Amino acid sequence: MLKLNNVTVKYGNYAAIHKIDISVETGEIVVLLGANGAGKTTTFRAISGLNRLTSGEIVFENASIGGKLPSKIVELGIVQCAEDRKLFPFMSVEENLLMGGFVHRKQKQELKRRMKDIYELFPVLHEKRNHSAGSLSGGQQQMLAIGRALMSKPKLILLDEPSIGLAPLIVEQMFESIKEINREGTTILLAEQNANAALSIASRGYVFENGKIVVEGSAEELFANEGVRKAYIGA
């Protein structure tokens, strides 16, 4: 479904990511592991069209998407759920969800169906649908951010650090929801520092350090890798 071939993104003379190769097959959950500043978010921004490529190519469903506008990439079926959620805090839960479906705004019945599915996935959002997004708890805000992304009917969703700042029980519930989204047919590329939780649901993964991919393999291989365990999981 998605291939990054020899992709480099620079900020001035600084290479935030350097000659990385990533592939994601339809139906997979693939995880990008690494510390803050390792290059995961820059990779997502490059896929989403928010950062221009310095070199390399990004291919989605056999078509190059490098240089396309972010709005066009959303229309093609790739949606990013940002690390800091980027909600509209003074708008209601339902209004935030409708903003997520903007590219399909003329398909009224489809938007209603999508919203119903999201309320079934995250029942608390239905209870809070008339509340402002800014009044929600951290876990509820993350649910809303993911729900808003799902409103555009993505084929591939980029989830950037969905567990950050959440209590362990909420993290567990969040990853169960991510598995359910995948079971319903959405391919997922997940950036996470919580390697233990991420590898428990992913099929494969890549480890970033200083803008480069230093290890890749199946979830089982990464979990068994001594260096990965020491750096991201613990003894």
Describe the overall structure:
The chain is α/β, with parallel strands linked by helices and about 240 residues long. About 40% of the residues lie in helices and about 25% in strands. It contains ten helices and ten strands. It has a six-stranded mixed beta sheet with strand order 6-7-8-3-9-10, with helices on both faces. Strands 2-1-4-5 form a four-stranded antiparallel beta sheet, covered by helices on one side. A hairpin with a 2-residue loop joins strand 4 and strand 5. The longest helix has 16 residues. The radius of gyration is 17 Å and the shape is globular.
Give a short overview.
With 235 residues, this protein is an alpha/beta fold. The chain has helices at residues 40-48, 70-76, 93-100, 108-121, 123-127, 138-150, 168-183, 195-201, 219-224, 226-233; strands at 2-11, 14-24, 29-33, 55-60, 63-64, 78-81, 156-160, 187-192, 204-209, 212-218. Helices cover 40% and strands 26% of the residues.
